[in-house]
């Protein structure tokens, strides 16, 4: 979610950023949100804290969510700043709130759909970019709506989640992005 949203931001924003700066930011975000979590997963698997990549048991989600929230905080503290990238900064703030909420719910033994959380967060961010920069992103928005529907359908078909878990995942991803929208829009 963070890397895809960051890449989309740098592709569609009408603001000028030097290409070398875009490459550096995207590489740093990819390292902290893609590569390090994969290494952390293998560490958890070797320690016996994760049985599979699907993390079907809600207790197995606690460490990855906690670690991921630390990595998102690292992005906010070191990689992004509020002055040069306000939309992207608040996108990461919304992600942080979503991940912390999912972490708290995991401690309360309530499993939510992290797939829906991520997709709905990106959906709201793209919608906000479309409004803020007055861009016609109707095809991207339509694609994301279709992706949300297909993801929800597949999660139900494979009995990975219930309707409640899907709805909670959707709203926990969507609402923080909607709330932080007031700060940069």
Short description:
With 185 residues, this protein is mostly helical. The chain has helices at 2-12, 19-47, 62-79, 86-107, 114-132, 138-157, 163-184.
Question: Explain this structure to me?
Answer:
By secondary structure, the protein is an all-alpha fold. It contains 7 helices and no strands. Helix 1 (2-12) packs antiparallel against helix 4 (86-107). The model has no long low-confidence stretch (mean pLDDT 92).
Break the fold down into its secondary structure elements and pairings.
Blueprint: H1 2-12, H2 19-47, H3 62-79, H4 86-107, H5 114-132, H6 138-157, H7 163-184
Helix pairs in contact: 1-2, 1-4, 1-5, 2-3, 3-4, 4-5, 4-7, 5-6, 5-7
Residue-averaged pLDDT:
92
Largest sheet: number of strands, sense, barrel closure: none
- Computed CA radius of gyration, to the nearest angstrom: 16 Å
Structural class: mainly alpha
Overall helicity: over 70%
Note the main attributes of this structure.
185 residues; mainly alpha
